[in-house]
Amino acid sequence: MKEVIEILFWIGLFIIFYSYLGYGILLFILVKLKRAFGKAEEELPTDFLPQITHVIAAYNEEDFIREKISNSLNLDYPKDKLQVIIVTDGSNDKTMDIIKEYPEIEHYHEDSRNGKIAAVNRMIPYIKSSITVFSDANTLLNDEAYKNIVRHFSAEKVGLVAGEKRVMSKDKDGAAASGEGFYWKYESKLKKWDSELHSVVGAAGELFAIRTELFKPVDTNIVIEDFYISLSLAMQGYKVVYEPDAYAMESGSASVGEELKRKIRIAAGGIQAIVKLKGLLNFFKYGVLSFQYISHRVLRWTLAPLCLLLVLFTNIYLAYLQIPLYELILICQVAFYLFSIIGWLLQNNNLKIKIFFIPYYFSMMNYAVFRGFFRYVKGSQSAVWEKAKRAT
Asked: For the chain, how long is the longest CA-to-CA vector?
């Protein structure tokens, strides 16, 4: 009995470590080896400036849309090669009136609210450019974003380019914004290495670009369409690359409640994507892409959260047997979850010392996976926008 529980404990601990840290370490080593023994990457051209269309799906963004339009129109890119389309389906505030003040913006609207991907699907026939850039309505792009993201399309094999998401953190941020900022800094590093090894494993909807001809209408029940679109193209053999110098900036979630709402939705969408992209689990067909997908995404949305419970309860049993090693590990686990509780109690305090917020965000993120799983099983997760409030 004891031996079986010990085996379960160490398997669970390995899966947790590998999912959140081990894969990153292994990825770093593999990238270093590729740099040492592989072919040097070709220099990207600086004069590749194709016609582009920037599509922005906005839902009730009256407080931010003016700033978004100004940002989109004034980035460093030839004005005669840029078209900006905003679709505001379902909006019922002043967003549409504000957009009318900008005649250079192409605006589409339907009163019905069918979700972001439904709005994007119906925009594609209106796009004549070879490259389409998508970004969220509540983000601002850096000045060189267009140039840096489209230059990758000078290579014919590139089908999609993922930009970087940057969460702007401040000293006064609470648990949600602090934890989200730390998480995305780590995620961005993993995406950079993923891209260098073989392929990005899922673009962030905050900013990505695609060859327009490759965009196929996506089922309107898909929850995380950016993730699904990018991996579908990778499965077809197109390169999905990462460009950290094209980035979308946004503030963190306004509260842990808002961030939890967002994470539950993403987790439900992640489980949905695993089911719909089940073919990608086939190592024999997709090789390195399958390895990256399972290591970076699938484990986090399936086994890792379960293993947190497995490791805790098996650890309690083994510590009860007064085995010093397991007693020490249990003390560390208890301390971690105590830090999480403290982070929860202080979640709305604007502390400069953020150490308690990281364990809390990690725990909240894994709790969201359980909630997301049950939401997916019940079929209660809609693809229609669930707009989370951002910190001011």
From this structure: 74
Pick from 130, 122, 58, 134: which is nearest to 90 by CA?
58
User: What DSSP designation does 18 have?
Assistant: I
CB 166 within 8 A of CB 189: no
pLDDT of residue 116: 86
- Tell me the C-alpha distance between 37 and 31, whole Å: 10
From the first residue on, what is the mean pLDDT of each consecutive set of 10 residues in the chain (392 residues)? 93 97 97 88 85 95 95 96 95 94 94 87 91 95 97 95 84 57 85 95 93 92 92 96 94 70 91 95 96 97 96 96 95 94 76 71 93 88 61 53
Go through the chain and tell me how many residues it has. 392
Count the neighbouring beta carbons within 10 Å of the beta carbon of residue 122: 15
Interatomic CA distance for residues 7 and 27, integer angstroms: 26
Q: What is the pTM of this model?
A: 0.90
CB contact burial 188-200 (16+ within 10 A = b; e otherwise)? bebbbbbbbbbbb
Fold of the 1-392 domain: Spore Coat Polysaccharide Biosynthesis Protein SpsA; Chain A (3.90.550)
- CA–CA dist 156, 197 (Å, integer): 19
Q: What's the pLDDT score for residue 354?
A: 63
Backbone angles phi, psi at 135, to 5 degrees: -150, 155
Distance CA 368, CA 373 (A): 8
Question: Do 151 and 48 contact (CB within 8 A), yes or no?
Answer: yes
Q: Taking the domains of the chain in order of start, what are their residue ranges? A: 1-392
User: What are 161's two structure tokens?
Assistant: 């380019």
> Quick one: which of 164, 169, 160, 168 has its CA closest to 145?
164
Please, what is the Cα angle at 183 between 307 and 168, to 5 degrees? 160
Query: Would you say 112 and 89 are in contact if contact means Cβ atoms under 8 Å apart?
Result: yes
CA distance 85 to 69: 10
Strand partners, 243: 163
Q: How far is the C-alpha of 88 from the C-alpha of 95, rounded, in Å?
A: 8
* Sign of the dihedral through C-alpha 145, 148, 149, 151: positive
Tell me the C-alpha distance between 29 and 49, whole Å.
Answer: 35
pLDDT at position 99 is 96
